[in-house]
Design goal:
Layout: H1 13-39, H2 41-48, H3 53-87, H4 95-106, E1 110-115, E2 125-130, H5 132-180, H6 189-210, E3 216-218, E4 228-230, H7 233-290, H8 304-318, H9 322-350, H10 352-373, H11 380-393, H12 400-422, H13 426-432
Antiparallel strand pairs: 1-2, 3-4
Helix pairs in contact: 1-3, 1-4, 1-5, 2-5, 3-4, 3-5, 5-6, 5-7, 6-7, 7-8, 7-9, 8-9, 10-11, 10-12, 11-12
Length: 433
Amino acid sequence: MGATGPIEPVMSRDEVDRALARLDAEHEAVETSLLALQDHAGRRLLEGAELTGVTAERWQRTEDAIGNLWHCFEVFTRALARAHEIRERRRWPGREALEELTDMLRGSGVAVSGQARVVEGEQPRLSERMTLGELIERMNDWYARSLDVVAAADSVWSALPARIDLLSAELQRTHQLARSVGVRPGEHPAGDDLVEITEELTTLRAEVIADPLAFWRAGSGSSAPGGGRPDTERYDRAARALEEVRREVEAVLGVRQDAEERLLRLRDLLSRTDRTLAEARNARGEVLAKIAACEVPAVSGPPTLLQEQWAQAAEHRRQARWHRLSPLLESLEQRAEDELHRARAQLSEVTAPLAVRAELRGRLDAYRAKVDRHGVAREPLLAERYDQARRLLWSAPCDLRMAEDAVLQYQRAAVEALEQQRGDSPADRKGMA
């Protein structure tokens, strides 16, 4: 790496002074950086940790680099001190002194020996000569590499273990809450998930402590030491999984708090369904007995399966099996509502013929009251048609088709009788329609 060939022209006194001032500043900066690196918390942690994987490999090279740094710094210090000694001999150095200073400040007069391999693929050297500028560049490069490893490890250790510990504390609280509502491994999926999350966090923390650089993602586009961020993908995945379990456990806890009220509401729904179906069955028998030539749909039996599942849900509540009660209640509530709606629909369908008969009876009585107020109810035709319609509507079984036809005939006869009485008044005709 050292320069070969003739030295640059001899430096003047002013050039020597400026070069020495620049090198003094470089010396101070390197010394400050080395002392800061020596005191860096990440370096102290790396020195005392039992490392594995990529961190162990990179830290070994980094330790070698730090050792090389101090060795090179000592060489640099001695060379700079020797240059100052020569410069300070005389206020106005002679040609021989300037030539010696020029060789020291610009030539490859610095011998560095025993450098360990600090870069993968780099061959260690027993000795080499270089300029002071090259020596400074070498130290800056090693310092940047060393600081990058130390800062990255420190960033991971500062970020991930603390977050994992906080998540583990939340995990323990969730464990306790889960056990209180019966969410246990082997009995509920959420219990199995808690076991997996616990194992993952334990493993993750151990790996982060032993191999922090495996969890470091270097920043793209930045060459600054320590540029990048901790890789939190596994931590984030565990946090999301724990949040899902926590919501599941809270849902089960909510079931425990309002289970009795929901069971009572369910029992009421099933009871109303039973009563509705019983009413529909009674109505069907009445329709079959009182309505002729009518197709009446069959009525389903009581919801015995739902009743059995309700009893099972009540048993879950008594045994505090909240994790089993939660999904069962949600299913039962929806199906009980649907069953009640179906029972009401069946009742409406079965009683439709009775509703038609009741409507015809009401219409017949309304026309009879109308003509009776006008004093024509006892006219032979009206009386005959009324008796015929009434006999059909109040007989059992009732023929709805014939009864409806009889009511229509009575209606037309009543309209005609009132028109004759009132002189066919348009207003009366409209009122009878």
